[in-house]
Amino acid sequence: MIELVLAASLAVDGCNAPDTVESAATVVGRASGVEEPDVRYCEYFLPRAAGEVRVVYYTPGQPQANKIAEKHITGDAGRSGLLQDTRPQISQEDFRSGEVREATRVADGWRLRYRANRNAEYRDKVFSDGQLDVIDAGFDALVRRHWSVLKAGEELQFQFASPVHGRTIGLRAAATPCQNPEADLCIRVDLAQAILRWIAGGDIYLEYAESADQGQAEPKLMRFVGVTNLLDRSGDPQRLNLEYFYR
């Protein structure tokens, strides 16, 4: 699964980003098909300043991988460097099509911005501060914040920001039986309103494991199965299996 190279680079089987990227990455996500195990892309999390993370996406290739997208995440981070903010600011661009997804703080709350491709116009929608609860990777922070509640079997409901649709989507998360017996908690996320099922592209399944960090248990996402935030080569949503590896 994970190979440590010279104790400095985080190398994952099936991923071959440049050495400078592997050396700087603290987390690597490997996305493969749900039915077929071929690697579609790998995402590398590169911390910058406190609370800022740059994520670069590469598709496997020879002699080297191809960089296809980049995302910037800005939010509060804890001692471990894991995002603690459920509503980080995000900016993502797919270099293949020019698709752009953004969620940024504005004076009146939040602005969701989307561009389908480099020939399309931007679509903007502003929401008040209380209209959305979670943005992008902020779901990970939501799980850690409500870890004991989820482990106790209670359900969480929240409004998730979707720049693609220019709206918030009501979601619910609850513990579900684990496919991996080594996982400490598994979560199923689906729509709070079944009438909107076409938006999400199916349920999401996640596996978390608790790892000790400076004496404290720190839940970490180990696996994600669902529609990802990166489109396929044809510009269509893709349902993938993502495995995460940590330095």
UniProtKB/TrEMBL annotation:
Domain of life: Bacteria
Protein name (record): Lipoprotein
Organism of provenance: Microbulbifer hydrolyticus
